[in-house]
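Open question from group meeting: does this chain pack into something compact, or does most of it stay loose? Before anyone orders reagents, we agreed to write out a predicted structure and look at it together. Recording both the input and the output here so the notebook holds the full record.
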Amino acid sequence: MKALNSTPIITDTHTHLYSEEFDQDRDEMIQRAINAGITRFFIPAIDAAATQSMYDLEKNYPENIFLMMGLHPTYVKDNYLDELAHVETELSKRKFYAVGEIGIDLYWDKTHLKEQQIAFKRQIQLAKQYKLPIVIHCREAFDEIFEVLEEEKSEDLFGIFHCFSGTLEQALQAISYNMKLGIGGVVTFKNGKIDQFLNQIDLKHIVLETDSPYLAPIPYRGKRNESSYLVNVIAKLSDIYGVSIEEIATITTQNSKDVFGI
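Structure tokens returned:
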């Protein structure tokens, strides 16, 4: 896949660049993305153990890396109150660009559903307090997520529904809560389904993401994902919307600026 022209800027709104899966070639992998035109990387938190590696990443790439702070729902365990205290402390100390990734995940384990709901709601309230967007992780939990969003909906609730993989109806419901839809590798999958209705969603509601090292797009499906593969997602969206790859890149980066404020 050829790289786009140096303009426009492309934004990966969700990538775990600190993942140990990149430990052997992190700098080379980031450089491949930059060479392909992807120059802005938004980094979601998962738990306290990841914090220092996120700060190290930011220190090495201060012009390119933008950090979030939050507790990922699959890391909500018996010690979740300690983890939430860590999130609260970090948010009070420095600038972040979102509270994320947060939400509810019932795919692996339903044991801590109540705690996940509490953590999700508390972190939404922190985002409102700091006037930050939220970045939502949802897996087999649309009803539970929407229930919390309905309780918390307000003008200061906004953000991104990360890795959106629901129906058209669920997409419209997410948008109704001031959420952009994070679109990544799933849009290239034959069984991903979102490609069948996405052109009914105005591009102003779409942001790009990889979720690397996870969810690599075709033709890399099943392999380690990386931010440079975002060009494959853009090519697919160009086909779906019938507009140029430059237009996809320009609009989605502007959408990311509207959400993150930068």
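Observations to bring back to the group:
Strands lie at 10-12, 38-43, 65-67, 99-105, 134-139, 159-161, 179-183, 206-208.
The mean pLDDT is 96.
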